[in-house]
Amino acid sequence: MFWKKHDIEKKDLLTPGAILIGAILISISICWGSGTLPYFAGGSNTGEGNTQVENNKEVKITKRDSAAIIGSGKVELVEFSDFQCPFCQRFYNDAYKQIKAKYIDTNKVKFTYRHYPLSFHQNAQKSAEASECANDQGKFFEYHDVLFENSDADGTGLNTADLKKYAVNLGLDAAKFNACLDNGTKEEIVKKDFAEGQRLGVNGTPTIYVNGVAIIGAQPFSVFEEAIEEALGD
Questions:
Q1: DSSP assignment of 87-155, as one string?
Q2: Tens digit of pLDDT for each residue in 140-197?
């Protein structure tokens, strides 16, 4: 909808109330679009939820030392994700768990998690760093699971105190974990993942590559199943 000039006086647009209402409406449009759409790095949702596989174009993903990997096999899934993203959480709760049971745990698929914390998620960067601190102690995916199972889109469950509590609950060395997190030891690792995502053209989360071909958004398991089965048959 476009406003006509005579509908609203210019001064009304500049009132704190109008600004606040506008900000709320923008936030809602960003966060709660279609159930499968990703969060976009530019802070908006395109509304183009029908595109599941992006042009079938295969890309070469640069590997990272000490990256979080689970499973093995001829098919590789690489997810660029954000722990505060509700669509990433939806992917985790639905498709990821089914992929893990059918393909990762049976060593048909190697799954790699890469970080893509979006700037408008205030706790995403630090949560990503915390998962890498857990990775140092061999419990990345256990920590990854806890983050997605205990967080909300507004950042609840991802504050520093929460991040440290989860480490204790998982039996990690708290002193080492806390020092790693407080000192920003993993900040550059997370930033390098983000830069790699940008190089590949990732602009929203989650973006999952199946043997280098991007599937965008929290698509249903059937979409990934079809792509994986095709890759297994090649």
A1: HHHHHIIIIIHHHIIIIITTTSEEEEEEE---TT-TTHHHHHHHHHHHHHTT-HHHHHHHHHHS--TTS
A2: 999 999 999 999 999 999 999 999 999 999 999 999 999 999 999 999 999 999 999 9
CA atoms within a 13 Å half-sphere pointing along the CA-CB vector of 22: 8
SS3 126: helix
* 39-233 belongs to CATH 3.40.190.100: no
pTM of the model: 0.80
59: number of Cβ within 10 Å: 15
Structure tokens at 198: 């940008």
Distance CA 41, CA 200 (A): 13
Backbone angles phi, psi at 128, to 5 degrees: -60, -45
Q: What is the DSSP letter of 140?
A: H
Instruction: With CA atoms as reference, report the closest residue to 173 among 138, 223, 219, 215.
Output: 138
**What is the Cα–Cα distance from 164 to 172, expressed in whole angstroms?**
10
Domains of the chain: which residue ranges? 39-233
Cα–Cα nearest to 82, from 147, 9, 162, 165: 147
